[in-house]
Amino acid sequence: MIIILKVREKGSTLIEVLITVLIVAVGLLGMANLQLKSTMLSNDSSIRAEAANLAHEIADRLYVNALSASAGLYTFALADPKIPAADVDSVVEEDLNRWVDSAANFRGKFAISNIVASAGKPAFYLMRICWPDKLALTPTTCDNEFRYEAARK
User: Is residue 110 part of a domain?
Assistant: First the structure.
């Protein structure tokens, strides 16, 4: 007569352990990717807030010095961070110099455009602030941009 003894397994097999390690590794990689994406988006949000603050600061200066703003003295190009000579009003030069100094630590470029209406009077100013995208394969100067319009009455 043959006696069959039932032996209960104790512990885990090697395949079970490997599958568990694989599942945990995939989960941890996903969490690391999520953390990296969160950090990058937080950095982009910080730059966007800084650009908005720069635009609002110069818009306030335009509003205070409305006569010079109406004459188009606050206009300068994106590629040229040098302040245009404002012979008429030294307040314009002071405003722009202070604004460019505060924007010196910004990680991008900026411009102020005077958009002229049909009657020859400025309709509004357009502040364009842009910065490169660090994640782009070939980052350019203006991958991301913040545009702010300040209307004149």
Answer: yes
* Residue labelled with tokens 């390690």: 21
**Host domain of residue 120:** 44-151
Residue 25 forms part of a structural domain: no
User: Is 96 a member of any domain?
Assistant: yes
Q: Which residue, 58, 44, 63, 74, is CA-closest to 135?
A: 44
pTM given for the model: 0.65
Number of separate domains in the chain: 1
Q: Each residue's pLDDT tens digit in the chain (153 positions)?
A: 677 767 676 777 889 899 999 999 999 999 999 999 999 888 888 888 888 888 888 888 878 887 777 777 777 765 555 555 555 457 888 888 787 777 777 766 666 666 555 455 556 777 777 777 777 767 666 777 777 777 655
